[in-house]
Design goal:
The protein is mostly helical. It has 14 helices and five strands. It has three domains: 61 residues, no CATH class; 85 residues; 185 residues, hpI Integrase, Chain A, CATH 1.10.443.10. Helices cover 49% and strands 4% of the residues.
Length: 366
């Protein structure tokens, strides 16, 4: 009987009368639960799966863990920037590797202990608590939340998992004004301009290195660019102010290109690695006599890395710190460091542009 009282005739396609009756009773119980509004999709699936297992000795088809993660990643394609997808794929691959042969088992076979084991492995590799919490919450948990919502699993193995405490974490520091001046005193060529760009805009090292002439708007005194870490080329641009010191450096170059990279010797180079830009900037810091405390040491044989309190990324903190000292509202701080998505120049109003430039102007001159 259906929820509205109608009698329905359905074939179980089972020859055993006892099994056929059990199957009918199961379907009726599920129908009654739906009529009362007291059952979730996952609960109904559980009832039917258990009955199917008893009657036929087989399970209803369910994707393996590997198949489900692959399907989840495929759905993300086109919805996220490529670098974000790369990060998702790496985390998914690491989680599947942690599961071993279990990765090719049923999706509902993953337990919270499996997630904890993966989390412990990342700690042994030297990853910070903050990074681990982000990987678990934003990447590993997402496919299981989707599976739970679709009724594929009755329990989400990541639900209720507490975050790792990070009370003793040392924080990134900001460069003092005198330290920036010391860096500029020893920097040569493109690095001098890159340091000015970092200090006055708060742009990340990769974004500074790949900055193009077309992104610098001298008429409006702003820079419009896409953040490589968080934005795709199709996203709206982030807009930051063009600081007078950086503008002066740009205009003083012997050769001013109308297009192409602002810093040709840095463009396209990787940030990490022994010959990467981060290491090269570290050598400039050493030449300037700037020492940095270590936030985290690389564990030998692990995938982690040594993290310093002072690095090129500290310019983001420097820009933000200077604006906070000037008691500017948080929105202005976001505008100068590009922490939030900006809009293309075409849609910026005069007031918006003035606010962006005003925020940049609060950074002390060098």
């Amino acid at each position: 009987m259906s929820a509205d009282g109608r009698w329905l005739k359905k074939s179980t396609k089972l020859k055993d009368r006892k099994k056929a009756l059990e199957w009918c009773l199961t379907l009726q119980a599920a129908q009654d639960a739906i009529g009362r509004g007291s059952a979730s999709e996952a609960q109904l699936r559980g009832i039917i799966e258990e009955t199917m297992r008893r009657i036929t000795g087989q399970d209803i088809a369910m994707p393996t863990i590997r198949q489900w993660f692959s399907q989840w990643l495929d759905a993300k394609a086109g919805a996220n920037a490529e670098h974000t997808l790369t990060k998702y794929r790496q985390a998914a691959d690491d989680f599947l590797a942690s599961l071993g042969t279990k990765a090719d088992g049923r999706l509902d076979s993953v337990s919270q202990r499996d997630v904890i084991t993966f989390r412990d492995g990342m700690r042994e590799d030297g990853k910070s608590a903050t990074t681990i919490n982000q990987i678990i919450a934003k990447i590993v948990a997402a496919p299981f939340r989707a599976a739970f919502k679709q009724g594929l699993i009755r329990l989400d193995p990541t639900a209720g998992l507490p975050k790792l405490a990070d009370k003793g974490r040392k924080r990134k520091q900001a460069f003092a004004l005198e330290q920036v001046r010391s860096l500029l005193a020893v920097a040569e060529g493109d690095w001098e301009g890159a340091i000015l760009a970092g200090y006055t805009t708060g742009m990340r090292l990769g974004d500074v290195a790949d900055l193009n002439e077309e992104q610098v708007d001298y008429e409006n005194d702003v820079i419009a660019f896409h953040q490589g870490k968080t934005q795709d080329s199709g996203d709206e641009a982030t807009v930051v102010g063009l600081h007078p010191d950086f503008r002066a450096w740009l205009e003083a170059r012997k050769v001013r290109r109308l297009s192409g990279p602002v810093f040709p010797s840095l463009a396209g180079r990787p940030s990490s690695g022994r010959s990467g830009l981060s290491m090269e900037f570290g050598r400039i810091m050493k030449a300037a006599g700037i020492e940095s405390a270590t936030i985290r040491e690389k564990v030998e044989g692990s995938k982690g890395r040594t993290v310093k309190a002072l690095s090129f990324h500290s310019f983001r903190h420097s820009a933000a710190s200077n604006i906070f000292k000037a008691k500017v509202i948080e929105e202005a701080q976001k505008r100068v460091t590009g922490h939030s998505r900006g809009r293309t120049l075409k849609t910026y109003t005069h007031i918006d542009l003035e606010a962006v430039k005003a925020a940049s102007g609060m950074i002390p001159r060098l």
